[in-house]
Amino acid sequence: MMKAFSFAHPILTSSSAKSYESSLLEDEADEWKAISAAGAGMAKALLLDYSEIRPVPDNIRVLALIGKGHNGGDALIACHELLAVYPRAKISVLLASNKDAMRPLTKRALDQVEGRVEAQTIPNDASKNALLELLQERAGGEAFDICIDGLLGMSSSGAPRAPISDLISAINEFEAIDLRAAVDLPSGVNDATSDLFFRADFCYCTGIPKHSVFHSHVPYGRVRYLDLGFFEGNSSAPAETQAYVLTSSTLDSLRRLRPASVDKRKFGHLYVVGGSAFMPGALLMSVQAAVRSGVGLVTAFAPASVAATLAAQVPEAMWIAWPETSNGTLDPRAMPLLLDRLENRATAVLCGPGMGQDRNTELVAQNIVRNVEQPVLLDADALRPKIIEQAPRRKAEWGPVVVTPHVGEYRRMSKASSSDLSNKTLCDFCKTYRLTTILKAPLTRICDGESVFYNTYGGPVLSRGGSGDILAGLVGGMLAHGSLPVVERIANGILLHGLAAQYLARDSGQVTVQTTQILDYLPQVLRSRID
Q1: pLDDT of 217 higher than 60
Q2: pTM of the prediction?
Q3: What phi, psi does 512 have (nearest 5°)?
Q4: What is the per-residue burial (b if ≥16 Cβ within 10 Å, else e) of 259-273?
Q5: Residue 198: what pLDDT?
């Protein structure tokens, strides 16, 4: 039986999505309303995502590939909305079928933009080379800023047929396109996908998240979920899934005013254990993020040789100097420094950032998992098999153990094959070791052993050293305060991190930025409702 979550929506197969959508959209008026909302949402998202490349030009150049179905209608509505914002936009429309063959609402969407776009129907016998020549002619020696794929939808099955197959091949080879966007699913992708599909930079899932995109997401570009309200107050959604996509409404609990009469201890106390003489930066970034997470208090345990220097950089945290081994790592004989301070103080413990991987740090982390009854977050150097093997031995009433591996670390810990990153294997791993896992990837997943939650926020701007340390600090802070279920607290940290990264990329691009700049965008995430 599918669970209902206020902060996440179910991911469905294409056939289930089609059936569910049909049950919601009872007549043509409902369908037109949905198409209009999807197109408008996509246009808004496109402009935001394009700004990661450069500011949107007033004369933005758009190429729209239009099929006869409702995906084509969504794409045409997006063009209509882009023209409303940028009247000087130049939009070229390539129609894969005659207007008479289009579904009525797609035809209606085409009528809205006729006279304001350059539309041309592709001949049925057009070859790939002929289509490449057509694209070069339409480009006029310049690049298209955006290409929108509205050729095929979730109703399509099997490999694309000519002329659409040749058009997809030509578009994939045509280099003069800055951003490639797919409506709902890249054309050619379905539950039994072929090798030929539109190579998207972004895939905008409209209304219902589709299993095909989340199952094998990497070749299909970055996933954007455009919520059209299909799951609001509706109890008739299909019940076959254990996979969900997080929505930004998760953060609503953090967007409210805090009580007027409240003490800092009400918002929790996070202990952070990590660092080494040779790698203090990771601990520093985790602590910087933790103090920005909303937690009331942060205490950091750092190697004695660097503790004073780090304390000067983050005076908001309390710093405890931990004796070191000859390797510059935390000495396990100093465990009482932590354990004697736990009772009635800490509400969660983060262990691992910059700690180093020797036998001494392994003993420190093992002791924490065995003896700390509060929630424990294991990150970075604490993600080792001998450490997580301690988790099932914890008392049932103790707080959860949460781990934050990237794919390589997950494979080492779970002993999964290099090709098996399935949700089933992930759930089995969490059940075996009694863990909640944050599996970091282009689409990060949270798994509690029963359900899997996908995060679509973030992007390549996070592919740099230190982003995981900041994530650990944010998630640690969320675990330390609040009464929400554990998965929801984790989701808050992940969404804060991902949305802040998106705002950073939109302001400064993906390349010439520093990881810690993410922290400057955290307030904007909570004070804005723009995804």
Answers
A1: no
A2: 0.95
A3: -95, 60
A4: eeeeeeeebbbbbbb
A5: 93
